[in-house]
Amino acid sequence: MTAQHAVFGHPITHSRSPFIHAAFAQAEGIALQYRAIDADLETFPAALQAFFADGGRAANVTLPLKEAAFALCASHGHAAQRAGAVNTLIWREQHWHGENTDGSGLVRDLTSRHGLDLRGCRVLLLGAGGAARGVAPALLDAGIDELVVANRTASRADALVDAMGEPGRVISAYWEALDEQGDFEIILNATSAAHGATPPPKLPSSLVNSRTSAVDLNYGAAAVPFLAWANAAGCRKQIDGLGMLVEQAAEAFHLWHGRHPDTEPVYAQLRAQLL
Ligand code: NAP
């Protein structure tokens, strides 16, 4: 029987998830149909119900639905619980179970593909939405030394910091006062600013040292503004979110099918499409 899968989000037309999961499924010999379903915060519950009525039992959610998906789930995996955000849904024991593979996907990309050693790093996280909540616990578990969170809406950065429960190791900072925060080994852009009309507040070059890697969770055109800033500011490495995209999908695929697909062929194809 062909398994029904989907990714929910808004906007969703440019999502690469259907391509990625179709490629994984073909490589692993699994029959599945994976579609993109446009849903915003208002329409998501009904859209998920309709998907379920059509036989859907496994799905991903993306921007801006990860926190809403968390609220819809009756049980959560450890990463999702810590993040308060869900990107992977599994129908289990008569309810939706929520997992979050964003953080493990990012860490796998940074350490395995890009050779970064996260241990002992001072990390600046820009953004406090669903993606930031997903990656923060995984970065802490990977052994970073300190996490500074700055967000346009300061109260959301404070809420993320509180949720991590590690005062002293995880702190918030006002974006406008980032020039008082010293320098970082990793600066991570987890905002969706490049998708919108309003540019994010400026970043000071004092954040950068000789070893700084800049990581944008976005990829393609949406990664250009931040990575261009990183290049101009002298960051040693500039990494976009394409590898994370493929790795978080592979982690979800593993949760659904019990197999971890080889991510390199799909990553190479997507990279070629972006060139
Ligand atoms: P989200 O929950 O909607 O959060 C958006 C975040 O961006 C919030 O922190 C928001 O700040 C901030 N923001 C939006 N416009 C801004 C602006 N003009 N200036 C400064 N900050 C701004 O979205 P999300 O799920 O966290 O996703 C964030 C980004 O990561 C998206 O672009 C998404 O495509 C990308 N992402 C990539 C992957 C991957 O696998 N590569 C995975 C997940 C997400 P406020 O709180 O002030 O609104």
UniProtKB/TrEMBL annotation:
Q: Which NCBIfam families match?
A: aroE, PRK00258.1-2
SDH C-terminal domain mapped to chain residues: 241-271
* Designated name of the protein: Shikimate dehydrogenase (NADP(+))
Write out the residues that bind NADP(+): 127-131, 151-156, 217, 241
- Enzyme nomenclature, EC number: 1.1.1.25
Q: What does this protein do?
A: Involved in the biosynthesis of the chorismate, which leads to the biosynthesis of aromatic amino acids. Catalyzes the reversible NADPH linked reduction of 3-dehydroshikimate (DHSA) to yield shikimate (SA).
Q: Which GO terms describe its cellular component?
A: cytosol
Catalyses:
shikimate + NADP(+) = 3-dehydroshikimate + NADPH + H(+)
Pathway given in the UniProt record: Metabolic intermediate biosynthesis; chorismate biosynthesis; chorismate from D-erythrose 4-phosphate and phosphoenolpyruvate: step 4/7
